[in-house]
Amino acid sequence: MTETKCRFSVIMTVYDNAEEVEQHLQDFLTQDYEPGYEVIVVDESSTDHTDDVLKLHKQQYPQLYSTFLPKPNLNVTRRKLALTIGVKAAKYEWVIFSDIHAFPPSATWLSEIAESLDSRTDIQIGYFKKGTICLQAFEDITQASSLIRKAERTRADGHHGKRLKYLRGKYDFIVVRADKAHDVLKFYEQKIGLRQLLGLRLSVMCHNLR
Question: 146, 137, 149: which is closest to 177 by C-alpha?
């Protein structure tokens, strides 16, 4: 897909992440990407100075938008609700679900994603590897459902991983058509039993070993 036809809304949630926001948000906001993009941060009512850090960044970066989810963060299911708020605020045709801990390895992150998209792709699962990105493309959301369900089961940070992310079904970001974004969130933070989890692990491993 040519970059002139592709714009992104990068969405993430934060809670008491003032230090991480101060260190890493700039990596999202300084992408060398001419078609344009926006970064939407949903604050889950942080109790530290996350809001102050966001306000300072908004003064410098007009493509940054922030909102908040009321009340303290009492359970992990609030992250799904916070991301839903972010999707509703998104104005571009592609949504990227990311995380302040999984910051872009370079200023060409968005350009690399745009170059990999085509008309048959509904969703891509992204991994950071030694300063570059790896992407798994799926033509349909349901094809990626096992991976998403396994990684996002009942834990707000379920998608994080350090090694063998690809084989273990852990990822750093998701790229999805905006009109399909709510379908992706349906698979977040599901309560999955041990037997179901084992089945999902095997499914992901078999898929990624092909």
Answer: 137
Q: Could you tell me if 40 and 9 are in contact, meaning their C-beta atoms sit under 8 angstroms apart?
A: yes
Of 110, 98, 95, give the one whose Cα is nearest residue 33: 110
What is the spatial distance between Cα 200 and Cα 182, in angstroms, rounded to a whole number? 21
Span 103-121, mean pLDDT?
A: 92
Find residue 16's DSSP bridge partners: none
Average pLDDT value over all residues in the chain:
83
Q: SS in 3 state form for 131-191?
A: CEEEEEEECCHHHHHHHHHHHCCCCCCCCCCCCCHHHHCCCCEEEEEHHHHHHHHCCCCCC
Question: From residue 102, how far is each of 25, 44, 98, 206 by CA, in Å?
Answer: 10, 18, 7, 26
> Mean of the pLDDT values across residues 41-66?
95
Q: Are strands 123-129 and 173-177 parallel, antiparallel or unpaired?
A: antiparallel
pTM (predicted TM-score): 0.85
Alpha-carbon separation of residue 183 from 83, 128, 164, 176 (angstroms): 12, 24, 27, 10
Written as six digits, the tokens of 38 are: 């926006």
Tokens of 90: 């998104």
pLDDT for 3 beyond 60: no
pLDDT, tens only, 154-178: 554 445 544 445 445 578 899 999 9
